[in-house]
């Protein structure tokens, strides 16, 4: 009881004194009116148009939209903070993919990769071994035969899996593998062939775009080089007799090709007004890339990424215009990250290689998907332990919500128990890991997520404007506070 009482008193005292000290600078920011719904809408329709073909990282489409952004930033009066006096910071994506000279045969039958057989793991492999069929792979089935050195064929089932998640069809094959992988490695299997069930058949086309593209990372990351691990294949149920053939031999030569190609972060700033504090930065973060051209839904194959993440991209530009109209004491830094969809690569790169002094970045305000769902609701992540790495930054964001848009804030998606693991899926994460105070603004998932239906016409622009206001108000507080937000002493994420 005592501890609680003291804590309550100190919060009240802290709040009132903090407010008295800084009320002059943290009153509603003067340039709120510079953020206009009409600008957000116009910019978003342009950025999420088919002209940019889904802005896939590492393609000319990402470079094209980056050029377009640089022109926008120049027009808004931002100063470039990329390499060599430009708005751009280039970095290399390390990519691995299955080479087209790979081969798979069962007995005398040659299988066509991607059509007859999926190569589910991007790993170099040479397998020649007899197949053993173990039904649904139950423990008693596995105990019945010695699988050591054999290719184990298993009939997939959704038993024991929670498929009540977004885009379950794209995750199903990974979930099935997780049920068996450790057990089969321990038993010394040479490879696994999963036979599709109905869910597997439904997943086949959904996993193809990512499987064919392969693995991505930046230098030094775990996916930068394809590791040698247990090879995994999927076969259609219509071919199940091939693996039931007593003594059938499986032959696979899987080659992985590795290459680099470019992605780019776009970085601009508005200088602060205070002689000392202007050397410090509030970093506003979003990502410019999306998923390019993939599996068609109906007649549409362009993944425009209107909510993900043109919404935040245009919000950042609107906030930049507001800071330009009325700068804060600290400088405002704006980073449109590249290659977020390929594994948060641009933010991983920038957190390690910032183009300003690392210690001068006082907070990272990241947004991802801020224009959909109920008009009155939103979420802030990085609020609840163990995701909270700066209580002071969180307090500024919550106060800003109360003073401005007054969203009802979701509290479930920031929990470690939430099935989506949302905290781990956007660009604040590498910053939090690297010791920058960081929070994540979002209006969460919707059925159009990562499909061609995430389009400009489905955005709630009034809501997008209020989310932009919220991020701006929070950044304004940070920019003008007498002290930079402190880091939590014992911040440690659950994974
Ligand atoms: Zn996103």
Structure description:
- By secondary structure, the protein is an alpha/beta fold.
- Helices cover 34% and strands 23% of the residues.
- It has two domains: 23-89 and 264-480, 3-Layer(aba) Sandwich (Aminopeptidase); 103-259, Glucose Oxidase, domain 1 (3-Layer(bba) Sandwich).
- The chain is built from twelve helices and 20 strands.
- Strands 1, 2, 9, 12, 13, 16, 17, 18, 19 and 20 form a ten-stranded mixed β-sheet that branches. An eight-stranded mixed β-sheet has the order 4-3-11-6-7-8-10-5. It has a two-stranded antiparallel ribbon with strand order 14-15.
- Helix 5 (168-186) packs across helix 6 (198-213).
- The longest helix has 25 residues, at 2-26.
- Mean pLDDT is 94; it is low at 1-25.
- Bound molecules: zinc ion.
- Zinc ion binds at residues 287, 308-309, 340, 368-369, 426.
Radius of gyration: 25 Å
The fourth-level CATH homologous superfamily of the largest domain is: Zn peptidases
Helix content: 25-40%
Kindly, what is the distance between the CA atoms of the first and last residues, rounded to a whole number of angstroms? 32 Å
Number of domain modules: 2
Q: Count of DSSP helices?
A: 12
Task: State the main characteristics.
alpha/beta, Aminopeptidase, ten-stranded mixed sheet, binds zinc ion
What would you say about this model in short?
With 495 residues, the chain is of the alpha/beta class.
